[in-house]
Amino acid sequence: MYATAAHIERLKPPGRRAFLPWLFMLSGDVQALFKGKTPLPWLGGAGAAAFVALYVTTIYTSLDERRRHTRAPLLALAGLAAVTYALGIGYAGDWLLCFPLLSLASGIVLRGGKRPLGPVILALAGSAGIIAGFRGGASDSLTVSYGTILSGLVTAAILSLFETVAQLRATRQELARTAVEKERLRFSRDLHDLLGHTMSVVVVKAEAVRRLAPKNLEAALGQAADIEAVGRQALTEIREAVTGYREGSLATELDRARSALGAAGIEAAVRRSGPPLAPQTEALLGWVVREGVTNVVRHSGAARCEIEVRGGMDRVRLEITDDGGDVGSRTTGTGSATSTANGEAAEGAIGGTGLKGLAERLSAAGGSLESGPCGRRGFRLVAELPVDTEDPMEPEVKEARTS
Questions:
Q1: For residue 344, with 0-12 CB atoms within 10 Å meaning exposed, 13-18 middle and 19 or more buried, which class applies?
Q2: 117 close to 69: Cβ distance less than 8 angstroms
Q3: According to the model, what pLDDT value does residue 128 have?
Q4: Which residues have C-beta within 8 Å of that of residue 205, sequence separation ≥ 6?
């Protein structure tokens, strides 16, 4: 079963503790030391302790972003290599398993395109195979060499994959922010041009009314009628320009909600997690945020409001809770909203006002909206939508733009 790109993005990269259990490969050697089956056990014990300490140091420093690009991981790796070769040459046997662990640590430290990971792993595999061949046999040589190559390359590939995914995610978010900024700039230019021309005409005709009123009332009334016509036309053009712009991103609506709650003296806690959403899904959730926060500001008298967005594989959940009272006015003033994807939407045009209209709109898009009391005091508004959905209002908006 193939993992989707969204599933891969939600996976967390292996942490430092994920590589520590591999030290159990040396458990047989440690048992031999305690049983006295190893010559000079005190020397072997010191070597094993040094190997574990240097291995842990190498892993922890190379996976720490603050110390990764310093000399500490390289120095720890060099010490680990020295101990590995000493144990391998001096004791051979199961101690040769230190080489795959050394290769694993090398893959972590030398991952990325700027460090010679390939030659280092090949050198480790070759030397491990030679030592195993002299002290054991051909089968031991092949096994140790293969394990050494595989452990280093696989570890480096996995970590590099997660880092690449993180970089791609950051790049995508940056591109999205850039696109939003460009759209805002375009809208501001269009609005400036539109209002600048309209206001110039209004000013000129208002001056004409002022001059003509004392002399020719009929001409002045004609100019006033022109001002009215120009104003109506300007309102129409502004509505057309704003129609597409009002469907802002969810991030923008969350920022506006935080600002509105703060201005009303309500402590705001906004949390968001999950993969990026489709534009229409963000637009619908943006409507829910606007309506929910408006209810909190106008009717709740709350001291704290929490907004949480959690995205999953197939559905995204938006929850708005507050600790205010006056729950009745919020469920009856705008209409109690409980609608599911399997239920029938209310009759009439989709996209009405208040929670009832939002419930109908989300239901038509395959989602749901529920609202009601939260505990002894408070109110909760919960919206769920498919990750990829289509706003039922979008065809009407497109038709309005082209008509």
A1: exposed
A2: no
A3: 79
A4: 223, 224, 226, 227, 230
